[in-house]
Specification:
The complex is a heterodimer of chains A (296) and B (156). Chain A is built from 8 helices and 15 strands. With 296 residues, chain A is α/β, with parallel strands linked by helices. In chain B, strand 1 and strand 2 form a beta hairpin. Chain B is globular, with a radius of gyration of 17 Å. In chain B, the strands form 2 sheets. In chain B, strands 7-11-10-9-6-8 form a 6-stranded mixed β-sheet. Classes of the chains: A alpha/beta (296), B alpha+beta (156). Chains A and B meet through helix 5 and strand 7 of A and helix 2, strand 3, helix 3, helix 4 and helix 5 of B.
Chain lengths: 296, 156
């Protein structure tokens, strides 16, 4: 089961009419390294036209630029990061990050790790993991470029995180996923439902392992850039039932997630998750989870 | 931590990094803080502030270390926008692009290269005494932040 027709008909069944979307480039100002206004002024003086992203704190759309945004000195000095708009949402959903122990379980290439460090003002500790060693080099470069000082990086599968013997206050699960057609033009010809199910299963394994290292009053933010419900609502429904997690209300861009998937009724609290159909951003799904009282 | 201290001294600078928190991991040095030191296991890949690496007996500084030195008293050369751009593209620095110098102006000394915002772009070696009436290359580029892009290209 694959192909554009197959997936598009699924989206329609879920209530979204397929439309082709051109991805918009976005940046996030690293206020750790310079004041937002001064960075914006510098970029303007280089002829880069920006537009504030209404639903993000330090996010800007790139309207026009004569240069590659990843090759100018302001970028190399860590004054901003190139980060897709929806991808800037997950890290912003945690409460009180300062001085906390935070796990970034699938961290490379590090855009969200840097954002977490900024929100934490370089305090506390971020433990950043990734299973692919070559991606850790990209992550390390990001940390050095952006002047991040509070991260420890391990070459480790998130499914083995208990080995570290650390309990975390906050856990970011930006899990490996099937992606979506906005950021991958070949998506429809490359992906099958079997891929989606395989990824969904891996995501459940990561969820199950990371819950073990979450403090009782801790928070998990779970995010994918997949539009497929197996990786989104259905996984969260599974987590509510099997890992005794609760979905917390969040206030961010996106629509209420779906509580009925292809005729299957899910836990009502799943509407507290956010599903982002592609329009201004890529496709995305995000939610905040906490341990329920009977799990403690 | 002799390699790091020796390197810093080449800028006529002295930075007191707390040696209790400097960790050598294979060929790389990292500066941790108390929190990180308590939690870091021996097999970490990267931790805290990366300071640089030793290769073939020679110390190669990180840009984080250069940034730390640039916040202290040290040999510094401030360059104009055009020269800053050429420098991060790997070029050497000509005398006419220099806006200001701080510290030593002696041939052979190291100097941090800063843009007019005071941000460290890398470092180089002075090729002649600045007081000499020459207008050719003044500073040899040794390392610049354009290296972040070169690393990405190497990985791709």
């Amino acid at each position: 089961m694959s192909g554009k027709e197959f997936f598009v008909s699924r989206y329609e069944e879920l209530g979204w009419k397929y439309e082709d979307v051109e991805p918009r480039q976005a940046i996030r100002i690293n206020t750790m390294n310079a004041e937002e206004a001064s960075t914006i002024k510098r970029l303007h003086s280089l002829g880069i036209e920006l537009e504030k992203i209404s639903f993000l704190k330090n996010g800007y759309w790139i309207c026009r630029s004569k240069f590659s945004l990843g090759a100018i000195s302001e970028y190399l000095l860590g004054l901003y990061s190139i980060q897709e708009a929806a991808a800037q949402i997950p890290a912003s959903l945690f409460t009180k990050l300062k001085d906390k122990k935070v796990l970034d379980a699938c961290a490379a290439p590090g855009g969200k790790t840097v954002q977490l460090a900024e929100l934490m003002q370089n305090t506390g500790v971020i433990i950043a993991l990734d299973i692919k060693k070559h991606r850790l080099i990209a992550l390390s470069n990001q940390l050095e470029r952006c002047n991040v000082k509070n991260v420890i990086v391990y070459h480790l599968d998130a499914r083995q995180v208990s080995r570290l013997g650390i309990k975390f206050d906050r856990i970011l699960l930006d899990v490996p996923c099937s992606g979506n057609f906005v950021t991958d033009r070949e998506w429809f010809s490359r992906r099958t439902l079997e891929d989606v199910q395989k990824n969904a299963s891996l995501q459940r394994e990561i969820l199950a392992e990371t819950v073990k290292v979450l403090k009782n009053d801790g928070e998990i933010v779970y995010a994918t850039c997949s539009l497929e419900p197996e990786e989104d609502e259905l996984n969260i429904d599974w987590a509510i039932k099997n890992l005794q997690l609760n979905v917390k209300k969040i206030n961010c861009y996106g629509e209420k997630a779906l509580t009925n998937i292809f005729g299957k009724q899910l836990d009502n609290t799943i509407e507290n998750c956010r599903r982002i159909w592609p329009r201004e951003t890529q496709g995305f799904f995000v939610c905040k989870l906490k341990k329920s009282a009977n799990a403690l | 931590m002799k390699p790091i201290n020796d390197f810093i001294s080449r800028f006529n600078s002295s930075v007191s990094l707390d040696e209790r928190f400097i960790v050598k991991k294979d060929i790389r040095y990292f500066l941790l803080n108390e929190n990180l030191k308590r939690l870091a296991l021996r097999n970490f890949f990267y931790a805290g502030t990366y300071l640089g690496k030793i290769k073939n007996g020679k110390f190669f500084p990180s840009f984080s270390l250069l940034r730390i030195i640039s916040e202290r008293r040290a040999n510094k050369v401030i360059v104009d926008d055009k020269t800053a751009w050429l420098f991060i593209c790997g070029r050497d620095i000509f005398k006419q692009g220099i806006v200001k110098t701080v510290g030593s102006k002696r041939k052979g000394d190291y100097a941090l290269i800063l843009n007019e915002h005071g941000e460290c772009l890398g470092f180089g070696r002075m090729l002649s005494d600045f007081d000499e009436e020459k207008s050719d290359v003044a500073i040899k580029n040794i390392s610049d932040i354009g290296d972040f892009l070169r690393r990405e290209k190497q990985q791709a």
